[in-house]
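Researcher: Go.
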Amino acid sequence: MDILQTVFQGLVDLGASVFLPIVITLIGIILGMKPTKAFSAGLTLGVALVGMNHVMSLMTDSVGAAAQAFVQNTGVQLKALDMGWAPALGLCWTWEYAFLMFPVQIGINILLLAVGFTNCLNVDMWNVGNKVCTAFLVAYVSGNPAIGFACAIIQCVFELKNADCTKYRLQKLTGIPGISMPHPMFLAGIYYYPLTHFLDKIIPDSMNIDAQKIRDKIGIFGENHIMGFIVGCFIGIFGGYDYKEVLTLGVQAGTALTLFPMVAKLFMTALTPVSNGATEFMKKKFHGRDISIGMDWPVMAGRSEHWLMMILAIPVIFIYAIFLPGNIVLPFGGLMDICLIVPLFYLTMGNMLKMAIGTLIGLPLHLYVASYFAPHFTKLAQITGGASVPKGQMLAWFGIDILELRWVFAAASEKNIIAIVILVVTIPLAVYYFKSIKREDMEFAKELGIKTEA
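Model: Structure:
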């Protein structure tokens, strides 16, 4: 057991930019690619991950600091500081049972591929940390690690199912064939799909004001760098910056929005040869089954709609944080609320109006669930020494992935009646979601000219 823990912890400690290229290189070789081409694809993926991380850090550091200044100017006291996703998942890895989740996820994926339940080969091993997070939170609230792992296993199964039901949607959005999206955040669709489906009924396609259409209509003002500059300046003004700092923030935000699609092209460069190799390999091994490679969400990062919506949502986030009764979280590390806005982008196919409505509805839930879990993250940090927590303060994660499902699992395990009722309702919601989203996916396949399996 100690040897297993040491091996997997060593892999995790390498970081996503090293670990995932190793995984992709090995998978490429197994799939029959030449070692040099497999290594090139893996290294390109590492470059893409590092590049995306730097651009996201630029955005978070510059825009986040201005937003933080805005809150400080209000004088509101919020005692739970938002860590953001990286420190939060890093903290979860300090849990004593965390290392077991690697073999659990891999074993489930292989088993479900073998029996034909899924056609997704999930290579996004870095996000095993999200299963660790679910297992820890439920285990800590319930006092039973077995219940925590059971919920994490359900999450694994749901992720693979969702990847199968949305792979042509992903190809429509990215242009990359043969990949799918088993990231946990997209399970938010179980709860948000009824809303977006309703919005589809009442908001015609002609009201789609996505960034590309804005760009076509307003010319230079629709370009990424111009949009980023305008919005960055706007946030700087609200943050109380002087004119020099406002202009600097505008340039930084414009830089980030310009670089996102450039870096995103590297994901296509890295993944296309691996996808082609996987397709040929799986046709031989699985008798023509349409196997997809499950990847992390940044393969969609080239689209500007979600980035623009994240920036526009920041002032709203702070208004909610300040005025919502019962909220104790100060959003900071996770101001770019990826885990709400990206799933909405996915469900609405980039319709900015529908994304905005979903964002306004979803943000309060993120704050309240972050407040609910803040004592548990804080306790883990104190017990393991994974982070320093000043007296009288707490650690929180605003923008937590699949917060709806995690809260339902955790609160139901401590016999919360409301959570138990929602858990029961989640079952028919999940059935409705997977069936409906699969039907839509078949329509996307037809649009793309893809012949699907019967």
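Model: The two ends are 44 Å apart (CA to CA).
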